[in-house]
Amino acid sequence: MEKFRQRVKLRITMMTSLIILIGIVNTGMLLNHDRLPTVPDFTKGFQTGVFTGLELMLVFFTVRSVISLKSEEMMKKLYIQENDERKKLIRQMTGGMGLVVCMIGIAFAALIAAYFDQTVFLTLLGALVFIEAVMLMFKLYFHWKY
Amino acid sequence: MKTKIKELRKIHKVSQDELAMAVGVTRQTITSLECEKYTASLVLAYKIAKYFKLSIEEVFDFSEVEEF
């Protein structure tokens, strides 16, 4: 449990740093919006949404971790929540199967896009190759690890 | 896999929550084990057996495990 406690402390430090960093970047972008290239409103809204969502998520997890550090029972509950073997299996299965379905979807979309727009086709193909490369990298890593 | 967890819990008057906390899993995992929807890892099987002061074979039924 002590090892996990240290990991939570490290996580708090990292998340706090990230919150500050995102805050600085966001504020910088807001203050210098006239110097930045003009983007459509939808893109701007999307960027703001991503930043805000990420900040809120990080704040939530930081607060949860800080509260857990103060109580032994909460710490154990957090440990169980993160290390429960059934949950781990569900996460692995979801990730593995979800990725395969996404790849098939992207491959089909690329095939269809090839008839209409070459840029879209190449973008989807690029995404597919990238996902494959990442998967291969992890496969090799885990083969080496276990 | 069939288990005797439910019977053992009743004998020892232990709730799913208490057992879950003692062996370091969620209550849902204990439920899944009791409903035979999930098979415990060797470590979890050991922890549960140890909790009831029994051997793994006394808690988990391996008779239906296929042999190659």
Folded structure, characterized:
The complex is a heterodimer of chains A (146) and B (68). Chain A is built from five helices and no strands. Chain A has 146 residues and is mainly α. With 68 residues, chain B is mostly helical. Chain B is 56% helix and 0% strand. The longest helix of chain B has 10 residues, at 42-51. The radius of gyration of chain B is 11 Å and the shape is globular.
Features:
heterodimer; A: 146 residues; mainly alpha; flat; B: 68 residues; globular
What percentage of amino acids of chain B are in beta strands? under 5%
Largest sheet: number of strands, sense, barrel closure of chain A: none
Mean pLDDT of chain B comes to 93
Q: What is the radius of gyration of chain A computed over CA atoms, rounded to a whole number of angstroms?
A: 21 Å
Give the end-to-end Cα distance of chain A, rounded to a whole number of Å. 24 Å
The helix tally of chain B amounts to 5
Bin the helical content of chain B: 55-70%
Count the E strands of chain A: 0
Shape of chain B: globular
Mind describing the biggest β-sheet of chain B? none
Radius of gyration computed on alpha carbons of chain B:
11 Å
- Provide the β-strand percentage band of chain A: under 5%
Q: How would you describe the shape of chain A?
A: flat
Mean pLDDT of chain A: 91
Concise account of the structure shown:
The complex is a heterodimer of chains A (146) and B (68). Helices cover 88% and strands 0% of the residues of chain A. With 146 residues, chain A is mainly alpha-helical.
Write the layout of secondary structure elements.
The complex is a heterodimer of chains A (146) and B (68).
Chain A: H1 2-31, H2 41-70, H3 72-83, H4 85-113, H5 118-145
Chain B: H1 5-12, H2 16-23, H3 27-34, H4 42-51, H5 56-59
